[in-house]
């Protein structure tokens, strides 16, 4: 039996569920203070709501949603996911290869838990989405972080990945489009990662939850479409592209080299059965979402709300002395860098705490994403342009005071 999970194993998800910065934010809200939250991609609180056709279809079917479904999910939404994989160029996927879950997060945890034994290693990007690191640790494994290169647009460093592969390495996690950097990976990089997985017989876990949230006319390639001789576990869902975070509707696709993964797939089936099934109302939204009007295209167009907010956030942040940002090509986030010479930050969590206390703006410190230095933070650009301008103005005011206090 695995040991009881210790709180230290959960430290990497503290930006979301616990920690002094969140505790302070809750205290301030209880006191009636209004906080501008740039810390989490919860679309609904910024007025970005699910498409009406999804809502109405769920309402019409809710009377039939009171029972358990098949442990992998209802047939119709799983079939819709198969059609989506065909559109993305992923070959050989059947309904039996699709698992529906309470958001992609549940499925990420399930897929890692089915693979990892005590001491096994999974390669995870740095900066990361903290869930990846947490679930590897909670499964008894060891998360090993490979570095993404800010100077190369936050693309993973293939040499660093290969240098960190050991006999205990079982898989590699890829987040494309990326959270927290907004990077979009080119095909040659994806092929390079696939070659490493092929060479070292690794499972590739690829999180593509932002695959439609793309700017400036760029296109996204599903990694699993590039090879069929490597085992891919691909995650996606409705939370971001369809602004349906609370519906908890996600899916996982097993593709590629499945012949030698029968024991692993059996483990996935067992874990899917143990949780009975994902929530039925959320499942009911998937088919309508994938087959209907893709309203995300309007939001990310040059005149669309998300694109305009991205452009404004980038413009305002890069005007602040000592702040640099790689402009995101995708997703909902930026990961700005603070010049250490101008901002000698020893503890970026304390930095985030002071920003919150003084300016009532909530961001996430870079180390919350397992970035090793204290020189970055993440913000979401989901608020409307007026609120975003106000929030970044407050950050600028705080940084000006920081420079004065720490000038030599």
From TrEMBL:
For activity, the cofactor(s) needed are: pyridoxal 5'-phosphate
Out of the domains of life, which is the source? Bacteria
**SUPFAM superfamilies, A to Z:** PLP-dependent transferases
Task: Extract the InterPro entries matched here.
Answer: Ala_Aminotransferase, Aminotransferase_I/II_large, PyrdxlP-dep_Trfase, PyrdxlP-dep_Trfase_major, PyrdxlP-dep_Trfase_small
The record's top EC class is: transferase
The GO terms describing molecular function are: L-alanine:2-oxoglutarate aminotransferase activity; valine-pyruvate transaminase activity
Q: Which residues cross the membrane?
A: none
Gene3D superfamilies, alphabetically? Answer: Aspartate Aminotransferase, domain 1, Type I PLP-dependent aspartate aminotransferase-like (Major domain)
Q: Write the record's keywords in alphabetical order, separated by commas.
A: Aminotransferase, Pyridoxal phosphate, Transferase
Domain Aminotransferase class I/classII large stretches: 34-395
Enzyme Commission number, as recorded:
2.6.1.2
User: What protein family does this chain belong to?
Assistant: Belongs to the class-I pyridoxal-phosphate-dependent aminotransferase family.
The protein's name? alanine transaminase
């Amino acid at each position: 039996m695995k040991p009881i999970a210790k709180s230290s194993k959960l430290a990497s998800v503290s930006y979301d569920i616990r920690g002094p910065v969140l505790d302070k934010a809750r205290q301030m809200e209880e006191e009636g203070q209004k906080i501008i939250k740039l810390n989490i991609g919860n679309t609904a609180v910024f007025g970005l709501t699910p498409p009406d056709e999804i809502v109405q279809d769920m309402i019409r079917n809710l009377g039939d949603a009171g029972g358990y479904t098949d442990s992998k999910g209802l047939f119709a939404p799983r079939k819709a996911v198969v059609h989506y994989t065909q559109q993305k160029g992923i070959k050989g996927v059947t309904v039996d290869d699709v698992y529906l879950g309470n958001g992609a997060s549940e499925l990420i945890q399930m897929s890692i838990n089915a693979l990892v034994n005590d001491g096994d290693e999974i390669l995870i990007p740095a900066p990361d989405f903290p869930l990846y690191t947490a679930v590897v640790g909670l499964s008894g494994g060891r998360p090993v972080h490979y570095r993404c290169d800010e100077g190369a647009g936050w693309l993973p460093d293939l040499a660093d990945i290969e240098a960190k592969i050991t006999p205990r390495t079982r898989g590699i996690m890829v987040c494309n489009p990326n959270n927290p950097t907004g990077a979009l990976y080119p095909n040659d990089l994806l092929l390079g990662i696939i070659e490493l997985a092929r060479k070292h017989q690794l499972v590739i876990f690829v999180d593509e939850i932002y695959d439609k949230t793309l700017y400036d006319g760029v296109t996204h390639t599903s990694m699993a479409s590039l090879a069929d001789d490597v085992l891919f576990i691909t995650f996606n869902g409705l939370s971001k592209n369809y602004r349906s975070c609370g519906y908890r509707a996600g899916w996982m696709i097993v593709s590629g080299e499945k012949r030698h993964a029968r024991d692993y797939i059996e483990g996935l089936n067992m874990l899917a059965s143990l949780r009975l099934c994902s929530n039925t109302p959320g499942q009911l939204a998937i088919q309508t979402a994938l087959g209907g009007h893709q309203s995300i295209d309007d939001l990310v167009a040059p005149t669309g709300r998300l694109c305009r907010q991205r452009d404004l956030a980038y413009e305002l942040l890069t005007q602040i002395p000592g702040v640099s940002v790689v402009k995101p090509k995708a997703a909902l986030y930026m990961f700005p860098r603070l010049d250490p010479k101008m901002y000698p930050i020893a503890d970026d969590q304390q930095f985030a705490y002071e920003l919150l206390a003084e300016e009532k703006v909530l961001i996430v410190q870079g180390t919350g994403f397992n970035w090793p230095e204290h020189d970055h933070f993440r913000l979401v650009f989901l608020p409307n342009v007026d609120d975003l301008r106000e929030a970044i103005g407050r950050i600028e005011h705080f940084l000006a005071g920081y420079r004065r206090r720490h000038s030599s």
